[in-house]
Design a protein that fits this description.
This protein is an all-alpha fold. It has 2 domains: 424 residues, Ammonium transporter fold (Orthogonal Bundle); 67 residues, no CATH class. The protein contains 18 helices and 4 strands. A two-stranded antiparallel ribbon has the order 1-2. A two-stranded antiparallel sheet has the order 3-4. β1 and β2 form a beta hairpin. α1 packs parallel to α3, α3 packs across α4 and α6 packs antiparallel against α11. The longest helix has 36 residues.
């Protein structure tokens, strides 16, 4: 007959395992959003990028990342044990015994299996790396993803996670900052890394030169499936921010996390959609200059969930609505600023995660509830100071300083090391593919295989370079192959569509065809 402690251990371990699996699906969702949000000739490159990150970040986190983050002996700067799982589990407690799982309290694992603890936190490291890398879409070389994965999962993110969540980490234990679900440690880190990498990569060919022109994605259905997986992941990740479920206080916080994530995401999405429609009604931009409403609305929902992550388990529902509303404004502001500065982020990764994450870490000391869970999972009211409840208390305002410290540390730490990596790669000319490879497709020229059938692939990138198609160069000329161009939304259509649209019934001239391709470049 299982004891109460054994049942609790099994429940806590399964809860963490389930959360880790869902975070993996969440990362896949981000990949689908990116893949659907880019042009079809580069979709396979986005998918392959995630596979590379999964492979190399797993090895980096196992060898050095997890030890730095949760490496046993208390240290305010970094962990110092468990390199490549050495002396992991109970071996250190029982010399001569082979490695096996033991939730000994020395490891501070909340009565959870240590290997499951590793798996869960690796999945978050994979998520951070994958989110950041989505900003490099359509122009980044394969080598960059490999080196970026090693640095992010092996060093940059693990150190930050130790400072906030590790034993005796200086941000969490010494400063007293709180970031329960990772608004800063997870999402702001990813957003800053995305922004720094994008600045070094420079815009895609045709995005801002000779004029600003949106380069639309090729598949709303793929993006929508990705959005569903990402939302599913946020529900689980935010509600399980305490990494515990047993005890009345933790059960209550899981429920609050679910509802608050839903409300913040919904409020942010609704706010952005209505604001963007209002802006377009006033400005009346040309059809090909309108924002991608579907993708941007999805991103606004994500921004709301990012913002509420920092305190989803510690907010009342009405607070989550306010957090989501401001997150939409923050995302919209960051998005427009980056476009004005000619920062080319294909799926607005930086605007979403900097806008949501930066606001989210400051929202925690403003809206946090007055109750806090105790060591045994019981609730203790009136132990927490927050501005909305104790506006006159100095301790409440100290929380804002703690959040400011957290945001500054995360942004500086990430920017320095990612900037060094990309600067070295840029000096070595190993960073970006050529303009020709961008237009004809990284899938074929970097990987040797397109994501879609060759005919569709040629439709997306053919006729854009010297009137030739990749298919003709690869498998020989086909005299019955139709002349293809793409319209402003990225839809693949035959040239006859433009004949009808422009009132022409005959063959279109070569100069007119070139003009249409220039005006409707995807």
């Amino acid at each position: 007959m299982a004891t109460t402690e054994q049942v609790e251990r099994a429940l806590e371990s399964f809860f963490l395992l389930f959360n880790g699996v869902v975070v993996f699906l969440m990362s896949c969702g981000y990949t689908l959003i990116e893949s659907g949000g880019v042009r079809s000739q580069n979709a396979g490159h986005s998918l392959f990028k995630t596979l590379l990150i999964l492979i190399f970040s797993a090895l980096a986190y196992w060898i050095i990342g997890y030890p730095l983050a949760f490496g046993g002996n208390p240290n305010v700067i970094l962990g110092t044990r468990f390199w490549a799982s050495e002396r992991f589990g109970a071996k250190d407690m029982t010399p001569g015994v082979a490695n096996f799982s033991d939730p000994n309290p020395v490891y501070n694992l909340n009565n959870q299996d240590p290997y499951i603890h590793f798996f869960y936190h690796y999945m978050i490291a994979f998520l951070v790396t994958n989110i950041a890398a989505s900003a490099f879409a359509e122009r980044c070389r394969v080598l960059v993803y490999i080196l970026f994965s090693l640095l992010m999962a092996g060093f940059v993110y693990p150190i930050l996670s130790h400072w906030m969540w590790g034993a005796s980490g200086w941000l969490g234990d010494v400063v007293g900052a709180r970031d329960f679900g990772g608004s800063a440690i997870i999402y702001l880190t990813a957003g800053v890394a995305a922004l720094i990498g994008t600045l070094f990569l420079t815009p895609r060919y045709g995005r801002f030169e000779p004029r600003t022109l949106p380069l639309f994605g090729h598949s709303i259905p793929i993006t929508s499936v990705g959005a569903i997986l990402v939302a599913f992941g946020f529900f689980v990740l935010n509600s399980g921010a305490d990494r515990r479920i047993t005890g009345p206080a933790y059960t209550d916080r899981v429920g609050h996390g679910l509802v608050n994530t839903l409300l913040s995401g919904a409020t942010s999405g609704a706010t952005y959609y209505l604001l963007q429609r209002l802006i377009e009604a006033i400005k009346k931009p040309a059809r090909h200059l309108k924002r991608r409403v579907f993708l941007s609305t999805v991103n606004s929902i994500i921004a709301g969930m990012v913002a509420v992550a920092g305190g989803a388990v510690a907010y009342n529902p009405w607070s989550a609505v306010i957090v989501g509303f401001i997150a939409a404004l923050s995302f919209l502001l960051w998005s427009k600023i980056l476009i004005k500065l000619h920062v080319d982020d294909p799926v607005e990764t930086a605007a979403v995660h900097i806008g949501g994450g930066l606001w989210g870490i400051f929202a925690v000391p403003i809206f946090r509830r007055r109750i806090d869970p105790g060591a045994e999972g019981s609730s203790y009211p009136d132990r927490i100071f927050s501005i909305i409840y104790y506006i006159t208390a100095g301790e409440s305002w100290r929380g804002l300083l703690n959040s400011l410290c957290t945001a500054a540390v995360v942004m500086a730490w990430t920017a320095i090391f990612i900037g060094i990596l990309f600067l070295i790669l840029k000096l070595l000319r190993l960073l970006k593919v050529t303009n020709e490879e961008e237009l004809r497709g990284i899938d074929l020229f970097q990987h040797g295989e397109p994501a879609y059938a060759l005919r569709i692939y040629c439709a997306a990138c053919g006729e854009q370079l010297q009137g030739k198609t990749v298919e003709q160069e690869t498998v020989g000329a086909r005299p019955n192959f139709p002349t293809i161009v793409t319209d402003a939304e990225g839809a693949i259509v035959p040239i006859e569509y433009f004949n009808e649209r422009n009132g022409s019934s005959g063959n279109i001239s070569g100069s007119k065809k070139q003009s249409l391709n220039e005006e409707n470049r995807v």
